[in-house]
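Lecture notes, unit on protein representations.

Consider one protein chain, 347 amino acids long.
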Amino acid sequence: MKKQKKSTFSLTFIIFTILVLIATGIVFGGYRLLYAPNFQANRITYVYIDQNKDFDNLCKQLIDSAQCSNIDNFKQLASILDYSQNMRTGRYAIEAGTGNWALLNILRRGQQTATRITFNNIRLKEELAKRLAEQLMIDEKDILSLIDDPDYCSLLGFTTETITTFFIPNTYEVYWNTSAEKLMERFGREYKAFWTDKRKEKADAIDLTPAEVAILASIVEEETAMADEYPIVAGLYLNRLKQGIPLQADPTIKFAVGDFSLQRILFKHLEIESPYNTYKYTGLPPGPLRVASIKGLDAVLNYMRHHYLYMCAKEDFSGRHNFAVTLAEHNRNAERYRAELNKRKIR
C-alpha cells in the first residue's frame, strides 16, 4: 500500500514538474514574443511606411535600421495580429529595447512621430515641390497641381505667379504622410503667424502688399549675397519705386532669360520681352524670383533710408556693391567693374 502511494506521489510530482516546465516554457516564449527587447539600436531610429505598405520592406528596415534581434518573432506576432493586412502609413520612432508588442501597438494605431522639414534657397515652384517631396511621403506632382491651379491660388489670395510668396522658409513639424492639402494648411498657419499686425503696418507704410514685399525681397536676395547689404539694396529699390524709375535689376533679367548663371548682362538680354524685364517695365515684376527668406522680408520692411538710386558689383569680386546717388558716380563704378570683367575674360 505504501509502495503504491509512493508510486502515485512520484507520478504526480513528475506530471506537476512537466506541467510547470511547460508553463514556464509558454510564459518564457510568450515573454520573448511579446515583451522581450527585440530592437537594439543604441539610439532612436525611424521606419517609414509609404502608400505601397510593403511588409517585407518594413521588416528589412527593422533589421537594417533598428537592429532587430529576431525578425521571425516579430513576423509571428504580426501574423497573429493580422498586421500585414492593416498597415498604416507614417514615420515611426523605435527606441532601443522596444519589444514586438509595444512596436506593433504603435504601428497598428498609426502613432507616428512628426518630422521636421525645411526649404531654403528655392527659386522655382518645381524646386520647391521637389524639396518638399524629398522630405515627405508626398508626391511633388500633388503639390504642383495645387500651386499651378489658378482657382486654388485665388482661394488663398494669390495668383499662380505670386503663390510662392505664401511660403515662409522655416522649420516645420509635420507628419511624414501628410497630404498636399494638409501641408498647405500648415504653411497657411505659418504665413498668418509671420504677417503680424506690426509687419502689415510696415508694409502699408511703404505702400506694398505682403506679396509685393516678398517680390522685392526676392530681388534683394538675388542681387546680393551679403545679408548686411539687404536693407541698403531694399532702400535703393524703394527709392526707385517712389520716383517711378525702372528698377533695372539684373536678377530679373536672369529670371526672364531663364539662366541664373549669367555672369554678364548684355544689351541683347535687356531687349527680352517679359514682364520680368525691369529695364523695360517700371514697378515690380508679377512674381518673386525666389522664395524670400525671413531675413530678406524683414530687410524690406526695415529698409535703410538713404538717397542711393544705383548699385554696381565691386570690381574686387568680393560679392559686395558700390552704391551711388548720381548716374555719373554710378557710371564710374560700372566702368571699373566692366574693365575687371574684360580683364578676367568674362563675357
